[in-house]
Amino acid sequence: MDHSLTPLLLLILVYLCDGRIFSFEMHHRYSDRVRKWSHETGRASPGDWPLKGSVDYYAALLQHDRALRGRSTLSDSDGPLSFADGNSTIRLTSLGFLHYASVKLGTPGMKFLVALDTGSDLFWVPCECSRCAPTDGTTYASDFELSIYNPKISSTSKKVDCNHSLCYRHNKCLETSNECPYMVSYVSAETSTTGVLVQDLLHLTTEGSHREVLKAYVTFGCGRVQTGSFLDGAAPNGLFGLGMDKISVPSILSSEGLIRNSFSMCFGQDGIGRISFGDLGSNDQQETPFSVNSFHPNYTVISTGLRVGMSVIDTDFTALFDSGTSFTYLMDPIYTMLSKSFHSQVREKRRPADSRIPFEYCYYMSPESNASLIPSVTLTMKGDGQFFVYEPVLVISTQNELLYCLAVVKSTELNIIGQNFMTGYRVVFNREKLTLGWKKFDCYDIEEADKYPPRPNATHVPPAVAAGVGNVSSHGGGHKEYMSSFAKPSQLSQAVSAYLIILQILAFNSRL
């Protein structure tokens, strides 16, 4: 089997009442097996096949998936925008278990497979590298080909000078070059990106049957030096910050009048998702207000309670909705309350702690295990919205045993609702109303056009919510530096990548 796209290439396990298991191999459209068959039968020539591991390869997977499912979002050209290759996103186990999208930059267009991150603001790609992620000798090298942006090759590339409104570190500019430097430091230990800001065309399309090609100038980071997690498998081809700062792409697109100041992300249980810029969601979605910190606004919400199985925990806490973190992190006392309540209601035997597994509460699964008896988890949000967690546990396999673990990690810094808790939902980050919306959603569903307001004129677009959001003032020179608000611990993704993810728990449950 071709394992370059692990979430789509599972060995399906069908559990029958008598305990027998039947297995069927699945081969993706661009697997080596299908390619060989296509060539032998004359259905395809070598030139028709994208190079395995290239950005074109992943883009082709996403485009084929979109065509196969027949998804059409809108019937007119005034709806939300998506990337040139479509609005599909894909979760890649070999690259930190995050959702990635194919983006095209510059003229001629060059494709990058970037991690989508609501926990930070700056969009950056490897560029004029003096220290970037290696292209060989790593865990992802066999599955991925790194693209490098070169502003000298793109005819539409523009330098961001020190007087630009988005140049927060203007006092660090060099007089000889007048280039605007940037530095993003992440909470994750020694993880950062450094370089200069540039502008170039981002290739976009309107969604729907009448697709309109658009190109918008965006400001992004020419990442010359990366450190920490960016060198060992987390976003080796760049990171697409979706935060509230005016430098984020959603802020730029809305300030130019191209979209409403909102976007949505859909997280499918099969590892495929969607991102739509300008999407306000639907009238029947649940919502909760953002708890906006004027100094550092981000997508933080307030939970007023927890339900774990049959137990109700009456407690308030704030948490950041962060697509750039694979799993959910909770601080004490919330973490202990949730995990102990979960443990008290589990019937299976708990597995002893294992330093290779980042989760504290793991349990043995047997043929008699009934996934419907695993305690559920529901967050009550401010405003009384109920956020039911469809995947609170993760099923993993070691050499000799099948386990399920409560996919929550104890945090010492902040509470983070990660991708695993968002799975099964379309999550709407509405920066106009300052609300988070959510609705149970099949990411392939067809939406009606009247659920999306027409594209506004530039003069009527609310300003970007967070001018200077996520910036930390320097005590020395008064300049600002970008600072992400979340942790991306590389050891977590490495530990999870060391195991074969057999089935997400709901898929397992549906076959019992």
From TrEMBL:
Gene Ontology terms: cellular component: plasma membrane
**InterPro entries assigned to the protein according to its UniProt record, in alphabetical order:** Aspartic_peptidase_A1, Aspartic_peptidase_AS, PEPTIDASE_A1, Peptidase_aspartic_dom_sf, TAXi_C, TAXi_N
Provide the leader sequence positions: 1-19
Cellular localisation: Cell membrane
Family membership noted in the UniProt record: Belongs to the peptidase A1 family.
Question: What GO biological process terms does the UniProt entry carry, in alphabetical order?
Answer: proteolysis
How does the record classify its membrane topology?
Lipid-anchor
Q: Name one Pfam family in it.
A: TAXi_N
Tell me where in this chain the Peptidase A1 domain is found: 99-439
Q: Which GO terms describe its molecular function?
A: aspartic-type endopeptidase activity
Major localisation: membrane
Annotated active site residues, numbered on this chain, are: D117, D322
Record's keyword annotation contains Acetylation: no
Keywords attached to this Swiss-Prot or TrEMBL record, sorted alphabetically, are: Aspartyl protease, Cell membrane, Glycoprotein, Hydrolase, Lipoprotein, Membrane, Protease, Signal
User: What is this protein's record name?
Assistant: Peptidase A1 domain-containing protein
